[in-house]
Amino acid sequence: MDTANAPTTFIADIAEGTQVQPGRPHHIKVLSAPDVRVVVLTFEAGHVMKEHQSPKALLLQPLSGRVRITADGHTYEMAPGSLLRLDAGLPHRVEAIDECRLMLTMID
Prior knowledge:
Elements: E1 26-33, E2 36-43, E3 48-52, E4 57-64, E5 67-71, E6 74-78, E7 84-86, E8 92-96, E9 100-107
Antiparallel strand pairs: 1-2, 2-9, 3-8, 4-7, 4-9, 5-6, 5-8
C-alpha cells in the first residue's frame, strides 16, 4: 500500500493477509510514507533471523506469538503488547519462539 501522498492513513487490520510460510519468513508492506514504513513479518516457530542491522531506527511490536530479540548485549522476550525501539545501525538478531507476526516500523 503506497500512502506517500495522503495526509492521513487508516488501516483497519494490519495483520490481514499475513500468512506464515513454512521454511522461510514472509513480509507484507503495510504502509509507505516519506518518513515512515511499516512491514508485518511472519515467522514459523523456531525460525532465526541471524544478526543484521537496519539503516533506519526501528520499532518492533509482536502482533501474535512470541519473539526473542537480541541487541546491544540484551535479550528481550516479546509478546503482543510489548514494544522495542532500536537505533539505526544497531546489530540485532530475531528468533521466533512461537509462530508469530511482528510489526516492524522503520522511521526516518
